[in-house]
Design a protein that fits this description.
It is a single chain. The protein is mostly helical. The protein has 2 domains: 105 residues, RNA polymerase sigma factor, region 2, helix turn helix motif (Rna Polymerase Sigma Factor, Chain: A, Orthogonal Bundle), CATH 1.10.1740; 84 residues, Arc Repressor Mutant, subunit A (Orthogonal Bundle). Helix content is 66%, strand content 0%. The chain is built from 10 helices and no strands. α2 packs antiparallel against α3, α3 crosses α4 and α8 packs across α10. This is RNA polymerase sigma factor. InterPro entries: RNA_pol_sigma-70-like, RNA_pol_sigma-70_dom, RNA_pol_sigma70_r2, RNA_pol_sigma70_r4_t2, RNA_pol_sigma_r2, RNA_pol_sigma_r3/r4-like, WH-like_DNA-bd_sf. Pfam families: Sigma70_r2 (PF04542), Sigma70_r4_2 (PF08281). Belongs to the sigma-70 factor family. ECF subfamily.
Length: 205
């Protein structure tokens, strides 16, 4: 199977099959990430399309991102931030009178976590974390990004990423108790790794 970098290089040469393969690889993860961030599946789909449009524009200008996966998530996060600052978002909030953190989780988001009760509780507990800790936990455990990739997405020092991850996991463990171990089943680590340090130096819960 071609690596992300090989696909992107082929896309830059105009390879349509490479583009379709890349979209197939990243569409669902980005959709899930944006749904979890926005709590709005339709808006999430719009922004997923915009991420791919921006990638194509980069490639047309012969500006190939060095680390494509964190680049994709960083663009997605920046699109969310731009949307939250927009007049359209403010008008929507006036109509709903409900901030994004207070909205119900959409069924499609629940399906991502296979409708397991423990994972629903984790989703609720995540909302109690500071924004940066929540982002780091989601990217690490639900999207399997490495700490260095998360550092590139959020554009903060690696040491800060590690500190926020450790603090966020401690808070989740205090809130959830043994159920916090379910985080290791979402892609960020396997059960047999619990209690062992990761390559980045942060222990699993």
């Amino acid at each position: 199977m071609l690596t992300d970098e090989e696909l992107v290089q082929a896309m830059a040469r105009g390879d349509q099959a490479a583009f379709e393969a890349f979209v197939h690889r990243y569409h669902a993860p980005l959709q899930h990430y944006l749904e979890r961030t926005l709590h709005d599946p339709r808006k999430a789909e719009d922004l997923v399309q915009e991420v791919f449009v921006r990638l194509l524009k980069q490639l047309q200008q012969q500006k190939i991102p060095d680390h494509i996966r964190p680049w994709m998530y960083r663009v997605a996060l920046n699109l969310c931030r731009d949307y939250w600052k927009s007049l359209a978002y403010r008008n929507e909030q006036q109509l709903t009178a409900e901030p994004p953190e207070a909205q119900d989780i959409q069924p499609s988001v629940v399906e991502i976590y296979e409708r397991q009760e423990a994972r629903k509780e984790i989703i609720g507990a995540l909302r109690s974390l500071p924004e940066v800790q929540k982002e780091i936990v989601i990217l690490r455990f639900f999207h399997d990004l490495k700490l260095q990739e998360i550092t590139e997405v959020l554009q903060i020092p690696l040491s800060t990423t590690k500190t926020h991850l450790y603090s966020g996991l401690r808070k989740l463990k205090a809130l959830l108790g043994p159920k916090a171990g379910s985080l290791t089943d979402t892609g960020g680590g396997r059960k047999e790794n619990r209690g062992k340090p990761t390559k980045e130096g942060t222990p699993y819960v």
